[in-house]
Amino acid sequence: MKPLFKEDRGSTTVEMTLVGIPIIFVLISIFEIARGMWAYDTLAYAVRDTTRYAIVHGQNCSVSPNSCAITIGNITARLVDAGVGLPPGQLNVSLQSLTDNIVCNPVSTCLASNTLFPSPGANGVGNPITISAAYNFTSAISMFWPGGGAPVAFAAVNLPATSTDYIQF
Question: How far is CA 5 from its chain centroid?
Answer without folding.
Answer: 57
